[in-house]
Write a structure and sequence with these properties.
25% strand; Immunoglobulin-like; four-stranded antiparallel sheet; four-stranded mixed sheet
Length: 307
């Protein structure tokens, strides 16, 4: 070996940048996952927590509104509380008369085959019973058969009455008596227990072409300013009567109800079972407006809750 020949060069130390890298860092992934979950929970629970909303009956979709209407009718068939049923129907905010709204929903359900099940048929019959008792009609009347006629408010019940017919025995061998059952029809008329929780405040008159021949009835709480919805009002005349409810005209307030008179007829107004009839009949007589127009007199009858 020559003295000029240099010694072998030692290998160069590998830089950290030259070292092989792993595809990902397990520790970094775990830390990132924990941080991500923490930020997500903070955002969901603290920054924008979910709020629980209350859905009103009128905000339900069409199918849910129909089911809710059927539930109201079924409840009425159990408790016979017409005022409560009307109050619940008002909450659905039908475009027009809430009772007629029940008839329209029943028509829709009957037309789509809801009577195919026992439960659906029961609900439809309850709805028909509810609106027919209030003088309304719908296509379900011809699609669904009811037992009896609920329009009279009388329920007919068949009770077996035993009638014993004795047959003389032809011999000494005793022959048992033959019992023949003959159905006896009993009419059960629903009654309304008097409550008398409202008093007549007064009756005023006016003459208006816009409200010609209208009896306006308003029912208020004791404070005289809060209207009471779903109160049944009755108008009676010689050969008939009509029943209607407060709160069916939302644009006129929850206290309001009205009735259209026929010229020349006298009417008595009361709240059945809740206030006595007014002292004098209201006569549908002609009148002259301040502008000189002819009309039929308008009455405003005011009731207020008793103390």
């Amino acid at each position: 070996m020559s003295q000029r020949e240099s010694a072998p060069t030692p290998p160069k130390a590998r830089s950290r940048y030259d070292r092989p890298r792993r595809p990902f860092s397990i520790l970094g992934a775990i830390v990132g996952l924990i941080l991500g979950m923490g930020v997500g929970l903070l955002y969901a629970w603290v920054i924008t927590p979910a709020s629980q909303e209350t859905v009103e009956p009128w905000q339900l979709d069409a199918d849910s509104r129909a089911s809710y209407t059927a539930a109201i009718a079924l409840a009425y068939s159990e408790d016979d509380d017409l005022g409560r049923a009307v109050e619940r129907l008002i909450a659905l905010r039908f475009p027009g008369d809430p009772i007629q709204g029940v008839a329209d929903v029943a028509c829709q359900l009957a037309s789509t085959g809801a009577a195919g099940s026992t439960g659906g048929l029961t609900a439809l019959r309850a709805m028909i019973d509810l609106y027919r008792l209030q003088g309304r009609a719908g296509c379900a009347d011809s699609l669904i058969t009811l037992a009896g006629d609920p329009g009279t408010g009388i329920v007919e019940i068949d009770l077996p009455t035993p009638t014993v017919t004795l047959t003389a025995p032809p011999s000494k061998t005793p022959t048992p008596a033959t019992i023949i059952t003959t159905p006896t029809r009993i009419a059960v008329i629903p009654t309304l227990a008097p409550q008398n929780d409202f008093d007549l405040v007064g009756v005023t008159t006016a003459c208006s072409v816009e409200a010609s021949g209208v009896i306006i009835v308003e029912v208020y709480e004791l404070n005289g300013s809060t209207g009471v919805p779903a109160v049944e009002v009755r108008a009676r005349w010689n050969d008939g009567e009509s029943r209607f409810f407060t709160g069916l005209h939302p644009n006129r307030g929850s206290s309001y109800a009205d009735f259209q008179m026929e010229p020349g007829i006298d009417y008595l107004i009361d709240l059945p079972g809740r206030a006595d009839p007014i002292g004098q009949p209201l006569s549908a007589v002609p009148c002259t407006t301040p502008g000189g127009d002819r009309a039929v007199i308008t009455y405003r009858v005011l009731f207020r809750r008793s103390e």
